[in-house]
């Protein structure tokens, strides 16, 4: 009987194991098929807790899996195992999708009476590689009780986009000396008191806001391993002691900021610490000396603490400690995402599939009038460069700041009829330069602006953030702010606010058209406070060889087989992964009865007017006026040179005079 019972038990165990294996296989198959899991506290998803979703991911996973987390406060101590790779967490909204816990160093756990340390106080442990998080808050609510980690990140090739890290001391732990990887933080908010960004990772913080709370005196405590070329690199970040609204909707009320002259940029947790700030805005809480040696004089010889082009009250290279460094322009050129994070596997972090290597933070000067001339003069030996020449009837205000985008000043040059020629209010034109959304300069539009001013227009050439500095839609936000500037300064420049046009060339043509068809569309206005209360709508468009549809058969953008296309750089990823942005930024998408009249001036390069004919058909159906003029056998940048400049201006002035009844 005993032998029979034993056989029966073995059969039952086998059946149970078989059921479990089949269930796991089914889960893995489901994951491989749908590659998306949903977490919702209300039971409307696959799981009600985040950890349950993480547990369902197969060990040694190599299939990209997205965990979508619906809004809610998830009070869980979370772990993503080191065998679970290629996981992306996407929150519904960073203000309302919160991953939180409240452990801290020194806390005695129950029932095992274990005393926690810094390394075991974390709310979320991320050990897996190729991890990505978007639109989430990582939080530790223990408060000012000592070390209390919100996120402990040791995985390699890790990306955080539009996330928040909330805590006090030791908020963000970027890996221990033995376990660390490469990390990229884009448009994130990080707050804390003491050493609240610390660890061994090679990490880039790109356009992040860093808030120092009262009671702490250090922003960073890097422990860069010996021999590593890079530690922490902050690009275009804001360091502030003003309590922002980032914690609204969380369990942590806004805290008082650190006092003035109270906070160091960093101190070395380990002797080879490396921390660099490039083009960052530093608040008044930053101490004039900038850096602290943590009472380790020898560390002054081995650390690299450096800055380049710091701005704000907390900047001041003349007051920094002697053992810190101010980078030269040549030295800062090596601080690109590819150089810092590329590694042996050429990792390219980004908003989509790691293609954001174009965000270098360094100006691209490849497209100039001279470089175009050198390239084209053999094919067009009669061509001549058009040089700026201010007519006697024109006045100019140069290098005017029209907007400040998170510490980044944006400038314009204004050209207008001389005071003696001012009578009734004048129409105005915003001129937008080309260069593939990546290069070029507003000075290239100056000859056009001068001629428009000579013909009775107020003309401004405005700079905007290019794709080496900020991705779409930053340029759109900037240029809409420039239109609002025109209206805000209408009295000073005698502008008729009901007669404003955009004129753009190449990439600038696409931008000019986009401004003309989107009016005051909220989603493209941006959060900038620049001249709010004024409209960004325009009443006429001049598109000089600029496409109006990215996702169009005629468009050459998005072909990355030989090299990364300009649009791929601008959108932060290829068309296959960012198609919604390509569609959103196409003027053809928005043509309606409110669209402004448009003039198309085109070269003989067909791909430069992708979508034009489709847009014209839409305009005709709605009774909106348009014109097309094509220069046969003209090169793409024809507007910069004679013999094409003069007829370009003739067509432009005639069109604007007709539309504005000049």
Characterise the protein shown here.
With 662 residues, the protein is of the alpha/beta class. 22% of the residues lie in helices and 25% in strands. The chain contains 14 helices and 36 strands. Strands 1-2-5-8-11-14-17-20-23-25-26 form an 11-stranded parallel beta sheet. Helix 2 links the parallel strand 1 and strand 2. The longest helix has 33 residues. The protein starts with a helix and ends with a helix.
Secondary-structure blueprint of this entry?
Blueprint: H1 2-34, E1 36-39, H2 50-56, E2 65-69, E3 72-75, E4 78-80, E5 87-91, E6 97-101, E7 124-126, E8 132-134, E9 137-140, E10 151-153, E11 158-161, E12 164-166, E13 172-173, E14 182-186, E15 189-192, E16 194-199, E17 202-206, E18 209-212, E19 218-222, E20 232-235, E21 238-240, E22 264-266, E23 274-278, E24 281-282, H3 299-302, E25 304-308, E26 325-326, H4 329-332, H5 337-341, H6 369-376, E27 384-385, E28 394-405, E29 408-417, E30 426-432, H7 446-454, E31 458-462, H8 474-488, H9 490-493, E32 495-505, H10 507-518, E33 540-544, H11 566-571, H12 575-584, E34 598-602, H13 612-621, E35 626-630, E36 641-642, H14 645-660
Parallel strand pairs: 1-2, 2-5, 3-6, 4-7, 5-8, 6-9, 7-10, 8-11, 9-12, 10-13, 11-14, 12-15, 13-16, 14-17, 15-18, 16-19, 17-20, 18-21, 19-22, 20-23, 21-24, 23-25, 25-26, 30-31, 30-32, 32-33, 33-34, 34-35
Antiparallel strand pairs: 27-36, 28-29, 29-31
């Amino acid at each position: 009987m005993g032998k029979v019972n034993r056989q029966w038990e073995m059969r039952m165990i086998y059946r149970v194991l078989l059921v479990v294996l089949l269930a796991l296989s089914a889960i893995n198959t489901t994951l491989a098929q749908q590659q998306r899991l949903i977490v919702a506290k209300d039971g409307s998803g696959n799981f009600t807790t985040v950890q349950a979703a993480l547990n369902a991911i197969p060990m040694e996973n190599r299939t990209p899996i997205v965990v979508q987390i619906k809004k809610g406060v998830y009070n869980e101590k979370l772990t993503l195992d080191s065998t679970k790779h290629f996981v992306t967490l996407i929150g519904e909204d960073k203000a309302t999708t919160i991953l939180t816990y409240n452990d801290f160093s020194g806390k005695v756990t129950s029932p095992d009476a274990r005393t926690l340390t810094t390394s075991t106080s974390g709310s979320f442990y991320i050990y897996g590689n190729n991890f990505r998080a978007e639109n989430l808050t990582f939080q530790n609510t223990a408060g000012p009780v000592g070390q209390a980690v919100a996120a402990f990140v040791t995985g390699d090739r890790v990306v955080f986009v539009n996330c928040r890290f909330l805590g006090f001391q030791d908020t963000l732990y970027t890996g221990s000396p033995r376990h660390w990887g490469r990390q990229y933080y884009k448009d994130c908010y990080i707050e804390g008191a003491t050493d609240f960004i610390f660890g061994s990772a090679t990490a880039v913080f790109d356009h992040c806001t860093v808030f120092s709370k009262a009671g702490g005196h250090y922003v960073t405590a890097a422990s860069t391993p010996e021999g590593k070329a890079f530690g922490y690199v902050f690009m275009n970040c804001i360091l502030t002691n003003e309590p922002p609204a980032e914690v609204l909707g969380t369990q942590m009320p806004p805290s008082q900021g650190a006092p003035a002259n109270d906070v160091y940029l960093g101190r070395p947790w380990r002797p080879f610490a490396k921390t660099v700030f490039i083009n960052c805005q530093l608040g008044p809480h930053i101490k004039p000396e900038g850096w602290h040696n943590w009472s380790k004089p020898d560390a002054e010889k081995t650390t690299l603490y450096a800055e380049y082009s710091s701005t704000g009250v907390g900047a001041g290279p003349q007051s920094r400690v002697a053992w810190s460094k101010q980078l030269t322009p040549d030295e800062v050129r090596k601080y690109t995402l590819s150089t810092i994070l590329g590694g042996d596997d050429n990792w390219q972090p980004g908003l989509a599939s790691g293609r954001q290597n174009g965000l270098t933070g360094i100006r691209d000067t490849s497209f100039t009038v001279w470089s175009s001339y050198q390239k084209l003069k053999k094919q067009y030996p009669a061509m001549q460069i058009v040089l700026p020449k201010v007519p006697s009837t024109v006045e100019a205000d140069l290098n005017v700041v029209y907007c400040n985008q998170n510490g980044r000043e944006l400038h314009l040059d204004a050209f207008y009829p001389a005071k003696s020629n001012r009578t009734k209010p004048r129409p105005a034109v915003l001129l937008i330069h080309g260069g593939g959304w990546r290069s070029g300069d507003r000075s290239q539009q100056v000859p056009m602006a001068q001629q428009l001013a000579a013909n009775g227009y107020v003309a401004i050439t405005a700079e905007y953030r290019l794709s080496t500095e900020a991705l779409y839609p930053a340029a759109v936000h900037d240029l809409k702010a420039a239109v609002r500037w025109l209206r805000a300064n209408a009295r000073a420049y005698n502008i008729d606010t009901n007669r404003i046009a955009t004129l753009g060339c190449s990439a600038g043509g696409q931008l000019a058209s986009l401004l003309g068809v989107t009016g005051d569309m909220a989603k493209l206005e941006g959060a900038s406070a620049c001249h709010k209360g004024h409209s960004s709508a325009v009443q006429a468009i001049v598109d000089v060889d600029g496409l109006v549809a990215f996702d169009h058969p005629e468009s050459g953008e998005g072909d990355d087989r030989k090299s990364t296309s300009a649009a791929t750089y601008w959108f932060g990823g290829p068309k296959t992964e960012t198609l919604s942005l390509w569609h959103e930024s196409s003027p053809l998408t928005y043509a309606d009865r409110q669209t402004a009249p448009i003039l198309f001036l085109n070269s003989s390069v067909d791909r430069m007017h992708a979508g034009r004919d489709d847009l014209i058909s839409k305009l005709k159906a709605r009774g909106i006026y348009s014109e097309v003029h094509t220069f046969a056998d003209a090169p793409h940048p024809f507007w910069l040179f004679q013999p094409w400049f003069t007829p370009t201006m003739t067509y432009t002035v005639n069109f604007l005079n007709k539309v504005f009844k000049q």
